[in-house]
Specification:
Length: 131
């Protein structure tokens, strides 16, 4: 593989959800290692219809951007919940708690941002902790 770039298909990246016990809620195809990326992370998420993210989280340092590809649903940022749909693009500051909920057709989105090891912080939240 050339050193100047790496090309993969996100659908070919292993789904991390089953190994973490979250496959009843979503698919999580985290591609940073598959891309050999050192400074940037990217992941494809598919939240199953009517389900929510398996957890709410925030970051210590990493700002993230989420781009909705297909479906519809809602996103929770701290205590605010709003509708999202195709091509919505949401920037989330590191300290802001975030989670998703899929509508009846599911919700597919990409998350990307800088990679900071062990940067994710789980947030206790009844909105996602109820399943």
């Amino acid at each position: 593989m050339p050193e100047g770039f790496t090309r993969i298909n996100l659908a070919a990246v292993d789904d991390a959800a089953p190994a973490n016990g979250f496959d009843h809620r979503w698919e999580a195809r985290v591609a940073r290692e598959a891309l050999a990326a050192e400074q940037t992370g990217v992941a494809l998420f598919r939240v199953h219809p009517g389900r929510r993210s398996p957890f709410t989280h925030r970051h210590r340092e990493a700002e993230e951007i989420y781009v909705v590809l297909k479906g519809s649903g809602r996103m929770k940022l701290e205590d605010e919940i709003f509708d999202v749909g195709p091509l919505d693009c949401i920037r989330v500051a590191p300290a802001t708690a975030r989670a998703f909920e899929a509508g009846p057709d599911g919700l597919e989105f990409i998350a990307f941002g800088p990679h900071h090891p062990a940067d994710g912080v789980p947030v206790e939240d009844p909105w996602t902790d109820d399943d």
